Amino acid sequence: MSTSDETAIAAGRSHVYHDTRIGRLTGGGTTGNERLTNVVGATLIVLLAVIGVTIIRIGSLLSEHLFVGMLLVPPVLLKMSSTGYRFVRYYTAEPRYRRKGPPELALRVIAPMVVLSTVVVFASGVALLFAGPSSRQTLFPIHKDSFFVWGAFMALHVLGHLPGMPAVLRADYGRSAGLSSDITGRAGRMLALGGALVAGVVLAVLVIPEFGPWLHDSGIFHHHHH
Q1: For the stretch 125-151, what's the b/e string if a residue is b when 16 or more beta carbons lie within 10 angstroms of its beta carbon?
Q2: Environment class of residue 222 by beta-carbon count within 10 Å: exposed (0-12), middle (13-18) or buried (19+)?
Q3: Cα dist from 106 to 21, 76, 98, whole Å
Q4: For the whole model, what pTM was predicted?
Q5: Confidence (pLDDT) at 180
Q6: What are phi and psi of 128, to 5 degrees?
Q7: 148-163 residue pLDDT tens
Q8: Is 199 helix (H, G, I), strand (E, B) or coil?
Q9: Helix (H) or strand (E) holding 10
Q10: What gap in Å lies between CA 43 and CA 60, rounded to an integer?
Q11: 74, 200 contact by CB (below 8 A)
């Protein structure tokens, strides 16, 4: 065997190795996309439950509300990217996404409102944080009202997707994952979610200085006792 043959074989091997390494991170096709959407969705449900608790006791849990709110931004963007990707691939007639078909009609109908209200809630929340308590007259009603709209659509969105979630999550993280199911791209999905959560924590920590004015001025949520 000539050295050029050996070089070609070695190059071929490294090419295959490179492909599988990339495949482990980005592979999975429509199934991988669905699993990423579901694991990020499941994480968001937990974090949104935490946000819910901070709203009920906003007077004493304002700093926690601000922290978890900021932490949520990157995972929410990841979830929108993953569902947005499916949307684009479906409407650009990518065969695999066409075969998979779109989500159910009812869920497709409310999807734009889920996205729009999410953007308004988070944008108004971040704007409030940075503008400080003086902005409450203009921005707080937007944040509060959009939250109610968002909550209603989010409840329908979650209820619509909840029944299918356990099976999808089990395929990647259940006891038999890898034996009975193809876990191509799982490492990449975990990396994406982990990265989004780390980015969220970093973002939240970086904006802690902005919490100050709000914590000193929380009369917005409860009347001062004389």
Answers
A1: bbebbeeebeebeebeebbeebbeebe
A2: exposed
A3: 38, 22, 18
A4: 0.84
A5: 63
A6: -60, -45
A7: 999 999 999 999 999 9
A8: helix
A9: helix 3-26
A10: 25
A11: yes
pLDDT, residue 223, reads 43
**CB within 8 A of 132, min separation 6: which ones?**
210, 213, 214
Token output for 94: 């990518």
Using the structure block, give the residue that is written with the tokens 């914590």. Answer: 215
Helix (H) or strand (E) holding 214: helix 211-216
Say what the pLDDT of residue 48 is: 96
Token duo for residue 46 = 């937990």
What does the pLDDT look like over 20-75, one tens digit per residue? 566 666 777 888 999 999 999 999 999 999 999 999 999 899 999 999 999 999 99
For the CA atoms of the chain, what is the radius of gyration? 22
DSSP letter for each residue of 94-162:
-HHHHHH-PPPHHHHHHHHHHHHHHHHHHHHHHHHHHH-GGGHHHHHHHHHHHHHHHHHHHHHHHHHHG
